Amino acid sequence: MLWSALVGTLEQGLVYGIMALGVYITYRILNFADLTVDGSFPLGGAVAATVIANGGSPLWGTCLAAFAGMLAGLATGFLNTKLKISGLLSGILTMTALYSVNLRIMGRANIPLLRKRTLVSWFGDRGLAPWVLFVMVLMLAKICLDAFLKTELGFALRATGDNEQMIRSCGVDTDTMKLLGLGLSNGLVALSGALVAQYQGFADVGMGLGTVVAGLASVIVGQALVRFDGLGWATTAVIVGSVVYRTAIFAALRLGLAPTDLKLITAVLVILALSGPSWRSICEKLGRGRNRVTGIPTP
Amino acid sequence: MLRVSQLRKVFNGGNGMGKIALDNVDLHVEPGDFITIIGSNGAGKSTLLNVVAGAYDVDQGRIWIDGQDVTIQPEHRRARFIGRVFQDPMVGTAASMTIEENLAMALKRGQAPGLSRGVSNAERGRFRELLALLDLGLENRLQDPVGLLSGGQRQALTLLMATISTPKLLLLDEHTAALDPKTAEQIGELTRKIVGGRRLTALMITHNLQDALEYGNRTLMMDQGKIILDIRNPRRAKMTVDDLLEQFVALRGTRFLDDRALLA
After folding, report:
1. In this complex, do B105 and A155 lie within 8 Å of one another by their Cβ atoms?
2. Does residue A138 carry a pLDDT above 60?
3. Do A171 and B74 touch (CB under 8 A)?
4. What is the pLDDT of residue B254?
5. pLDDT score of B244
6. Is the pLDDT assigned to residue A291 strictly greater than 60?
7. Residue A81 is assigned to a structural domain of this protein
8. A151 and B116: CB-CB below 8 Å?
9. How far apart are CA B254 and CA A138, in angstroms?
10. How many angstroms from the chain centroid is the CA of residue A169?
């Protein structure tokens, strides 16, 4: 019982890890807080579920989902680079618009996939657990991403997130790089959404809520735990972070926390992780305000 | 190599009043010219370099580099002609990336980045040789993130990056001003070696009048958005800092003298 629950947790960590890799591209590499993710994740689920429910090939549905996610990322990139809307707001606008788009695609709020041919059931028919599928997709994504980041184009993408003036002086159009990064990122996010829908057996228009924050939590937790230099390690850290995050959620539920409180807990976790340096300086200031021996506030 | 004609650039204030940064500037830079540019704050020196590099659009006028009209080309398109070093040593390099990664991006300046390897082994060897010329020990630190380097080391690296794929035009915007005097002198010496040794065409802004006369072959003085003095060798070679100041007073009155302590 516990064993199967743990396997389920691992599978969640892996399948959401694909999404976390996408968040890593925008948040860490491109230095762009991209909220499109909360819309592109259910977009992936919606596209895949619609194709599968209509008797289409699950592989085709999954690929189409990833492609749709890329388009969503490009939309945010277009708002940001061409229409000069701030990055945060661009993501919010696309995310909001996608809610309606996702409902249009599905035609209703929820599509069940029970007894349909999905990628997960295809593996199940061959006696393979879902995690085999997820490990394969995740490793493929990780290896491709690691290799990509070592190419000229990968360099240009990383430099765009680091120092735009520098890479423009090297003749690279930073707008194009942002479009590329947002497209790749949301493609991965939607791919993750498509697999999650097939794994849980339905796509739901509300399944994207809190995806960004979960992705950020995975990235931050992973980088706190895996502290090796080099790009291969960075993506490994994200995957580790995703698995650890899902395990922590599982543990919290076992301890009797209400599932409805999870988003609050995740948000607080991310706040604590992001505000670490600020807390230190606040504590120092408080400490400085008092005489260390007597504890009496100094003027 | 560079020609600008009737350049005009006005920065708009909130009250509808504009500040004229460039006022019908004409300039013809010959291949191999190493020009120093002086002038008080707000004279338009940096604006001129930024306009040539494409960081700002012009309101009027045209810019040609090597005979090609680049007036409406965006900054990243013009970058294939131009190497730049900025005043702030942080601006010219990507801190989270390694020395070799930074150099590799600079080496491919102006080429669309593709899916081939970012740094090849052959390039590594070349980077090591070039870094050894800087004499800062960086040739053994190819895989170190640039963020670990000091300001002087980063500026030396930026200078190397700006010139690694020979630019048609090198723009130096007070690139030693943010460094301590000893480091500034080293970077200055390096600049002379690279620009002189490879006969690069360069524009260098400086606040140091002595440097302005010692570096290069030609000096421009700017004031209120105009080039008010343009002197070349051999006439320039005989000039002193006092001559320069006298020239300014003759042209514009005494205001420059107030800046003398700052400039000389």
Report:
1. yes
2. yes
3. no
4. 58
5. 86
6. no
7. yes
8. yes
9. 71
10. 31
Provide the residue ranges of all domains of chain B, joining segments of one domain with +: 2-98+151-263
pLDDT for res B264: 43
How far is Cα of residue B19 from the mean position of the Cα atoms in its chain? Answer: 23
Phi, psi of A214 (to 5 degrees): -60, -40
Amino acid type, B41: N
Contacts of A170 in chain B (CB under 8 A): 79, 105-106, 108-109, 161
Residue in B80, B93, B117 closest to A171 by CB: B80
Whether B238 and chain A come into contact, CB under 8 Å, resolves to no
Q: What is the pLDDT of residues A250-284, one digit of tens each?
A: 998 899 889 888 888 888 888 887 887 777 777 77
CB atoms within 10 A of CB A50: 20
Q: Which of B80, B82, B91 sits opposite A165 (nearest CB)?
A: B91
Whether A91 is covered by a domain: the verdict is: yes
Q: How far is CA B28 from CA A264, B64, B201, B230, in A?
A: 64, 10, 12, 11
Would you tell me which residues 109-138 of chain B have a C-beta closer than 8 angstroms to some C-beta of chain A?
A: 109-111, 113-118
Give the gap in angstroms from C-alpha B258 to the nearest C-alpha of chain A: 34
Please give the residue of chain B at the shortest CA–CA distance from A147. Answer: B117
Tokens of A117: 């041919």
Q: Which of B89, B83, B63 is nearest to B174 (CA)?
A: B89
**Which chain A residue has its CA at the smallest distance from B108's CA?**
A170
The token duo for A275 is 């505000």
* CATH number of A217's domain: 1.10.3470
Window A:166-185, CB contacts with B under 8 Å: 166-174
Residue type, B75: E
CA separation for the pair A280, B184 (Å, rounded):
36
Whether B261 has a pLDDT exceeding 50, the answer reads no
If you measure CA to CA, which chain A residue comes closest to B76? A171
Spatial CB neighbours of A268, under 8 Å, sequence gap ≥ 6: none
Residue A204 lies in a domain: yes
Whether residue B94 and residue A167 make contact (CB cut-off 8 A), yes or no, is: yes
| CATH number for the domain formed by residue range(s) B2-98+151-263 | 3.40.50.300
* Domains held by chain A: number: 1
Decide if A172 and B113 are in contact by the 8 Å CB cutoff: yes
Domain assignment present for A57: yes
What's the pLDDT score for residue B42?
A: 84
Range of the domain at A48: 2-288
Q: Is B97 on the interface with A (CB under 8 A)?
A: yes
On whether any CB of chain B is under 8 Å from the CB of A230, the answer is no
d(CA B216, CA B203): 9
Q: Is A158 part of the contact surface with chain B (CB cutoff 8 Å)?
A: yes
Distance CA A168, CA A159 (A): 9
